[in-house]
Amino acid sequence: MADHHTLWHNTGSGRQENMAVKNWIDVLKSSQKTALIHDGKKKIHYLFTDGKEMAEEYDLKTDELISRKWRQKSTLGVQGVWLVEVGEPLNLPAGLDCDVIKENCSNPVFMRKDTKSSFQWRIRNLPYPKDVFSVSVEPSERCIMIKTTNKKYYKKFNVPDLDRSELPLDGSALSYTHANNTLIYLKPKEILTLEQELLKEVKKLKGTSEGDVDCKTQ
Fold first, then answer.
1. CB atoms within 10 A of CB 61
2. CB–CB of 144/161 below 8 Å?
């Protein structure tokens, strides 16, 4: 893998700014955005100049991100499927609530559910003792790896938010809670700032109510 270099720009006030973070903020601001209010959520659809689409859902009361997914067209112009980055996987059995899935699903379910201060990944239906689990960071591959010594589970995954902003993967920011099989990665200050900027953009959007697209919400 080639060396990963991050460009920094001196703002003149002695503060350096990560150019990749700034560029991603600019891309988000310049995208074509539409908003919809439904069921206590604000749903935002982004259309980027390269044709990619991103859809996010925010809790109206807490402003927390509930879900984020992406899709893009193929080289032949065929619309792709939505790929979930944050939130419930799209392939969960329809009509089953979380408890039923947890009890009856024979396969582990891996999903990401963030808080305002951290990225979080949860693994359902993996009933093994704490000493079976191994969690590590692979900086050269820019990924996190979780596996069990009994070889029943193995998962390697990246953190798209860090990749988009060209920020390093820091092992000291990662922790694991066995009680609910949760991996927690504390968001670096650059991501916190970026998300605050994005939330400002989201709040500017006048969402329409589902089923009445002409009615602007107050």
1. 8
2. no
Amino acid, single-letter form, for residue 93:
P
Tens of pLDDT, residue by residue over 9-55, are 444 433 445 788 888 889 999 999 999 999 999 999 999 999 999 99
- Concatenating the DSSP letter of every residue in the chain gives -------EEE-SSS-EEEHHHHHHHHHHHHSEEEEEEETTEEEEEEE-TTS-EEEEEEETTT--EEEEEEE-B-TT--B---EEEEBS-TTSPTT--HHHHHHH-SS-EEEE---SSEEEEEEES----GGGEEEEEEGGGTEEEEEETTSS-EEEE--HHHHHTTPPP-GGGEEEETTTTEEEEEPPHHHHHHHHHHHHHHHHS-PEETTEEEEE--
Q: How far apart are CA 215 and CA 218, in angstroms?
A: 9
| Residue matched to tokens 């074509």 | 32
pTM, 2 dp? 0.79
Relative orientation angle of helices 189-204 and 19-30, to the nearest 10 degrees? 10
Q: Which residues contact 59 (CB under 8 A, 6 or more apart)?
A: 40, 41, 66
